[in-house]
């Protein structure tokens, strides 16, 4: 249960085998056998030599040879019903292919059109912000930093481009949910009530997580404004900075600001992970 297996030793010109198949059961369940590779990637960029080699039993050639003879004709024999006419199967297969093909073509056309609309939105907003920044009064220039203007043009304007691709989910989402509930009710009747209840409980939970992410994003943007402002000041006064040898002091200041920004990014990543877990496991529950 907790003992390691003896892994074959690699030769001088071979990479070591992946330890997943030779570690203890707790290590395999907790994935602690990956920790050395993660630490190695943290210290330096990973190369092919740093990665493990798959054992021969897990390689594609071996798996294909093992499965080919066993699976040959098994699926066809299972799904084939000799009592039904062949044209019916051909019709269903052709219809499915046509539907999938039309879905791909129409979705690509839809996303392309929405992407162009988003680009127009972003270009218009960026141009308006740029024109407004040129007409700012002296008092407004004192209150508005360069970083804030850059964030408005680079990040906030890009959000309009992203929203246009998913704006129709506002009406298609409830419609799809309604159709799915109707179909489930036809098949399962009132047995769907616990699952639907859990689904609606998760809605305020996801909204709460979204609000927390929104607050962290706002704090991250403020820190980012400070970093961009300081970088602009450093670049504008680089001669004075080099003359008085203030490089180390400014590097520490920028690093301190960047560490705060990374802290907010990590917290956002944790919330995103929790949200994705809930999104994935809610239908299963």
From TrEMBL:
Gene Ontology, cellular component aspect: endomembrane system; membrane
Transmembrane spans: 87-111, 167-185, 191-209
Membrane-topology descriptor: Multi-pass membrane protein
Subcellular location: Endomembrane system
Cross-referenced SUPFAM superfamilies: ABC transporter transmembrane region
UniProt xrefs under Pfam families: ABC_membrane (PF00664)
Gene3D superfamilies, A to Z: ABC transporter type 1, transmembrane domain (1.20.1560.10)
Sequence ranges assigned to domain ABC transmembrane type-1 in this UniProt record: 73-285
Keywords: ATP-binding, Membrane, Nucleotide-binding, Repeat, Transmembrane, Transmembrane helix, Transport
GO molecular function terms attached to this record: ABC-type transporter activity; ATP binding
Highest rank taxon of the organism: Eukaryota
Name used for this protein in its record: ABC transmembrane type-1 domain-containing protein
Organism (species): Rotaria magnacalcarata
């Amino acid at each position: 249960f907790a003992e390691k297996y003896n892994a074959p030793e690699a030769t001088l010109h071979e990479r070591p085998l992946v330890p997943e198949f030779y570690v203890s059961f707790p290590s395999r369940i907790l994935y602690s056998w990956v920790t050395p590779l993660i630490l190695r990637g943290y210290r330096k960029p990973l190369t092919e030599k740093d990665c493990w080699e798959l054992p021969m039993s897990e390689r594609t050639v071996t798996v294909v040879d093992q499965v080919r003879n066993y699976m040959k004709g098994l699926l066809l024999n299972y799904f084939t019903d000799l009592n039904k006419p062949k044209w019916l199967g051909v019709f269903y297969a052709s219809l499915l292919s046509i539907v999938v093909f039309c879905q791909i073509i129409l979705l690509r056309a839809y996303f392309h059109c929405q992407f162009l609309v988003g680009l127009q939105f972003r270009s218009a907003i960026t141009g308006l912000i740029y024109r407004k920044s040129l007409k700012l009064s002296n008092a407004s220039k004192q209150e508005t930093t360069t970083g804030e203007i850059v964030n408005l043009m680079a990040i906030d304007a890009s959000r309009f481009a992203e929203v246009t691709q998913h704006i129709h989910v506002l009406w298609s989402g409830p419609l799809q949910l309604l159709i799915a509930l109707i179909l489930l009710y036809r098949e399962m009747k009132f047995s769907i009530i616990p699952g639907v209840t859990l689904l609606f409980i998760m809605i305020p939970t996801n909204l709460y997580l979204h609000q927390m992410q929104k607050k962290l994003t706002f704090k991250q943007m403020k820190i980012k404004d400070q970093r961009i402002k300081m970088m602009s000041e450093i670049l504008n006064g680089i001669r004075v900075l080099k003359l008085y040898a203030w490089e180390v002091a400014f590097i520490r200041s920028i690093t301190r600001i960047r560490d705060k920004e990374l802290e907010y990014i990590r917290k956002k990543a944790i919330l995103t992970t929790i949200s994705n877990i809930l999104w994935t496991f809610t239908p299963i529950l």
